[in-house]
Amino acid sequence: MTKSLLIVHHTPSPYCQQLFEAVLSGATDPEIEGVQVVRRPALSVSPADMLDADGYLLGSPANLGYVSGALKHAFDVCYYPILDSTRGRPFGLYLHGNEGTEGAERAVDSITTGLGWTKAAEYVLVSGKPTKNDLEACWELGATVAAQLMG
């Protein structure tokens, strides 16, 4: 049975785009079998998208010490419709911030704890221009969460 990994992202900058592409590349590695990767911009994700997924990758800039308004909107739209149906599902997170990501991390921790999701890997936190190591960490994040769904 094919599992579904949903990448919910807000990618407004070239640096965020680089991180997204690295996460996507890891999640779609040919060695990972039986996992369909679905991508949705945070402003267009629906509760049905979230309910259809078996796991999640979340990507956002950290703006003014918080997740992007787009990712917050995704959770505002989806939180209650998915609240009792997605408990225990794995998720990963990558953030890009120029002046700290702590507030964004706390926000995602709070929301995902409320949903009962399981942190599948360490968060990838990037400041400034992504380095080769940052991009490799994003690739690993994508691959790790997707591989966990292979079961």
Automatic annotation (TrEMBL):
A Pfam family of this chain: FMN_red
GO MF, one example: oxidoreductase activity
Organism per entry: Mycobacterium talmoniae
SUPFAM superfamilies, sorted: Flavoproteins
Name of the protein: Flavodoxin
Domain NADPH-dependent FMN reductase-like: 48-126
Family matches, as InterPro entries: Flavoprotein-like_sf (IPR029039), FMN_Rdtase-like_dom (IPR005025)
